[in-house]
Amino acid sequence: MNGNLAQTPLHSWHSAHGGRMVEFGGWSMPVQYSSIVEEHQACRKAVALFDVSHMGRLSFRGTDAGRFLDRLLTRRALDMSPGQVRYGLVCNQQGGILDDVLLYRLADIDGTADWLLVVNASNREKILAWIELQRPPELDIRLVDKTVASAMIALQGPRALELLQPMIDVPLAAMKYYSVAKATLEGYEILVSRTGYTGEDGCELFLPAVAAAETWGRLMTAGHPLGIKAAGLGARDTLRLEAAMPLYGHELSEETNPVQAGLGFAVNTKDREFIGREAILLFQADPNEPKRVGLMLDERRVPRQQQGVFRGDEKIGEVTSGTFSPTLDRPIAMAYVRPEIAAQGTELSIDIRGARVAARIVPLPFYKRAK
């Protein structure tokens, strides 16, 4: 493997425990340990542990940080309270998506808001450059890239809170979905958030890089009676696709806007200005904007990105993501199609290696956990 790839603080553990390492966003990451299906099912039925330290973690402080983030993101930041987390988008002036992000409003420090922005690994350098381009030099904004100095671990699954609670001094069940709190875990000061990318309940931990291996090992040991599995990028992708969560480079790109992606909830246009607002308003007013839809196949052949989607002999789009769903026991995919074709139940076909395979539009998400 390319020796120039960045490594997370857990890289040695992955290599020592059978992780099949691949390049992802400039990082050496485990795609799987045992099998993708086993890791996927552990997350759906018990608990799975994911190393997500490759995600970019950018700290913002200063009296102008909140106003700057409010202009940078499509989602309102200024009305967030300490402890809130919001999903949002960073767009260019044309309304194209530069990245989808999570914004964390942390507890105030000396009366000033403390912010954390989590960005996709492959977009970290791009977003840092975009921030510098957009940041007026006279503003009081202190930006620190904490990616390398920290680690990020995700515990996901119906038994995730049961595993973590004995180790942590925050009542996890009392935390709302999309909230964050400072906590102590095994003597380390950390952040814990009720967030994730699998469609399951769970938490994500932000901790010092030096604490990552010890914490990971203790979680794996304590989770053994609960059926824990370390899970790689393969299971993370099948899980997020079942939950219809978009992935940058697949459903999202600079050629994609929030309206067609079905992310209108992450765009607040009323009474505020942000980068890309005028273009997004035009997209919202256009009845011909493509729509992101779910496709389900009855045959076992699996659709993949860039394979053509057809209505009769007319090509109407391309698959953005496709996989075999372990939960549903059949292939699923997402694609963009014209709005007049996007009705549920519409019969289409996908060109899979030269063969037209029947598919139909179904509601998203494909999978939704029981509350």
Please give a handful of descriptors for the protein shown.
371 residues, 6-stranded mixed beta sheet, 8 helices, single chain, alpha+beta, 20 strands, Alpha-Beta Plaits, globular, Elongation Factor Tu (Ef-tu), domain 3
Q: Terminal Cα separation, in Å?
A: 42 Å
Total domain units: 3
CATH class identity of the largest domain: Alpha Beta
Fold-level CATH name of the largest domain: Gyrase A, domain 2
Number of helices: 8
Radius of gyration: 21 Å
Report the mean per-residue pLDDT as an integer.
97
Strand order of the largest sheet: 11-12-13-10-4-14
Low-confidence regions? none
The rough form would be described as globular
Main sheet summary: 6 strands, mixed
CATH architecture of the largest domain: 2-Layer Sandwich
Beta-strand segment tally: 20
Strand content: 25-35%
Which sequence of SSEs, written as H and E, runs from N to C?
EHEEHEEHEEEHEEHEEEHEHHEEEEEE
Helical amount:
10-25%
Oligomer: single chain
Overview of the structural elements:
It is globular and about 60 Å long. Helices cover about 20% and strands about 35% of the residues. The strands form four sheets. A six-stranded mixed β-sheet has the order 11-12-13-10-4-14. A six-stranded antiparallel beta barrel has the order 15-18-17-16-19-20. The chain starts with 5 loop residues before the first strand and ends in a 9-residue tail after the last strand. Helix 2 packs across helix 7 (about 235-240). The protein is α+β, with helices and mostly antiparallel strands. It folds into three domains: about 5-55 and about 150-240, Probable tRNA modification gtpase trme, domain 1 (Gyrase A, domain 2, 2-Layer Sandwich); about 55-145, 2-Layer Sandwich (Alpha-Beta Plaits), CATH 3.30.70; about 290-370, Aminomethyltransferase beta-barrel domains (Elongation Factor Tu (Ef-tu), domain 3, Beta Barrel).
